[in-house]
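Per your request, structure below.
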């Protein structure tokens, strides 16, 4: 299973299960703030490569647009600026209620576990997104 396969299958499962971000006015993208309820996502080397390719097409990209207390890719509008290539960790977090509790789904957990088992070295090289140095980042 490739990373693209994983992301496609995750999208299928989430669409079929009806899981989605339950974002309300109470949430200011809390999952995209390291100190927020989602914690900080990890980035594997292949995910970093895909993000770097995405960034290479965006000249003058500025990290930390929403401030240093946020994920470096969060926009001032509260949206992810690399949504199409966001890491797997960001694809598996769904709040089910106003308390911002994340919903779990065993099909998603099993799929991600299978992928990690197949790509153990990649998984072991995971870095937290704030530590990962992307192309063009100081
Ligand atoms: S997944 Fe949860 S924390 Fe993230 S934006 Fe949606 S409601 Fe907010
Ligand atoms: S990469 Fe995007 S979705 Fe993931 S934490 Fe950062 S802003 Fe949020």
């Amino acid at each position: 299973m490739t990373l693209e396969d994983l992301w496609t299958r995750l999208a299928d499962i989430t669409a079929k299960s009806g899981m989605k971000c339950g974002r309300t006015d109470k949430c200011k993208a809390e999952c995209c703030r390291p100190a927020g309820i989602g914690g900080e996502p990890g980035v594997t080397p292949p995910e970093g490569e895909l993000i770097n390719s995405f960034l290479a097409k965006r000249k003058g990209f500025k990290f930390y647009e929403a401030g240093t207390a946020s994920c470096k890719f969060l926009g001032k509008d509260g949206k992810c600026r690399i949504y199409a290539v966001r890491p797997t960790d960001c694809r598996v977090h769904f709040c089910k209620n106003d308390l911002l509790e994340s919903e779990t789904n065993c099909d998603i957990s099993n799929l991600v576990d299978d992928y990690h088992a197949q790509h153990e070295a990649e998984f072991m090289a995971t870095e937290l997104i704030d530590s990962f140095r992307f192309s063009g980042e100081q």
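The mean pLDDT is 90.

Regards,
D.
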